[in-house]
């Protein structure tokens, strides 16, 4: 698989990213548990700030490190819901820690995230390129703003000619009398299989290359439908990092 120059740049630090790149798959499979430890001897040797900063670095890299700190502070809520109806905040002693995984939930409503989560692009950067090049429509109108956050029920449509996993049918020398659109063949890319899942908050139709944004990610029965390769405890440390900075 050809790796774009931009993808190489983003994958050089060994951080897990939103990409099907083979290097990213290697990082995902070989991420050492000690590097992300929140308990045990490795964590004891680190200060609280070091643990929170590592958690912020790892989670930010996966949930889009291209967003500035000023922007991310506006996106992360002060209180996060949990499955028990409680809230996760720095002043709550009874909060459930698994609610911290929702700290980046607002990003999932961005058009570039939806295009990537729907498997219309092989990376978050490719998704942005498709949007900027005018290949994506929002509710039937061409839209060129990757960072725009859609509303529940909005429909995002991608031109099938630019979808990385769709291959056009072979040219037929005989003229076709059918006026229907040509049928594209699905051809999976190398190293794509581990990432082939659709979050519950998206309804994807591959016949029309469109996605409906149903709702924001939620927690139900102690399970979160927001994809993340990290445990909730790591998200909790990252959340505390941002919540403390907000009080400075």
How does the SSE layout of this entry go?
Blueprint: H1 5-10, H2 22-30, H3 41-44, H4 48-62, H5 69-75, E1 80-81, E2 87-88, H6 111-117, H7 124-132, E3 136-138, E4 141-142, E5 155-158, E6 166-167, E7 185-186, E8 202-205, E9 210-213, E10 219-220, E11 223-224, H8 232-245
Antiparallel strand pairs: 1-2, 3-4, 3-5, 5-9, 6-7, 8-9, 10-11
Helix pairs in contact: 4-8, 6-7
Family: Belongs to the universal ribosomal protein uS4 family.
GO molecular function: rRNA binding; structural constituent of ribosome
Keywords: Ribonucleoprotein, Ribosomal protein, RNA-binding, rRNA-binding
Number of separate helices: 8
The backbone outline, from C-alpha atoms, is: globular
Strand order of the largest sheet: 4-3-5-9-8
Gyration radius, to the nearest Å?
20 Å
CATH architecture grouping of the largest domain: Roll
> Overall mean pLDDT score?
79
Distance separating the two termini: 46 Å
Structural class: alpha+beta
Largest sheet: 5 strands, antiparallel
Task: Give the total of domains.
Answer: 2
In CATH's first tier, which class of the largest domain applies? Alpha Beta
Q: What's the β-strand tally?
A: 11
């Amino acid at each position: 698989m050809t790796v774009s120059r931009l993808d190489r740049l983003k994958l050089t630090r060994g951080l897990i990213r939103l990409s099907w790149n083979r290097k990213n798959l290697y990082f995902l499979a070989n991420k050492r548990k000690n590097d992300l430890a929140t308990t045990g001897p490795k964590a004891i040797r680190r200060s609280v700030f070091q643990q929170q900063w590592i958690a912020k670095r790892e989670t930010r890299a996966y949930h889009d490190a291209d967003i500035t700190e000023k922007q991310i502070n506006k996106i992360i809520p002060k209180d996060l819901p949990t499955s028990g109806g409680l809230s996760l905040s720095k002043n709550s002693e009874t909060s459930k820690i698994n609610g911290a995984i929702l700290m980046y939930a607002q990003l999932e409503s961005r058009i570039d995230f939806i295009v990537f989560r729907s498997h219309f692009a092989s990376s978050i950067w490719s998704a942005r390129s498709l949007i900027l090049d005018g290949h994506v429509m929002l509710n039937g109108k061409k839209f060129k703003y990757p960072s725009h956050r859609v509303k529940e029920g909005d429909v995002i449509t991608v031109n099938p000619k630019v979808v990385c996993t769709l291959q056009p049918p072979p040219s037929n020398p005989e003229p076709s009398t059918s006026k229907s659109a040509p049928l594209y063949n699905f051809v999976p890319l190398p190293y794509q299989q581990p990432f082939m899942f659709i979050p519950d908050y998206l309804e994807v139709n591959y016949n029309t290359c469109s996605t409906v944004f149903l709702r924001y990610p939620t927690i139900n029965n102690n399970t979160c439908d927001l994809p993340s390769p990290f445990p909730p405890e790591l998200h909790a440390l990252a959340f505390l990092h941002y919540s403390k900075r907000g009080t400075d």
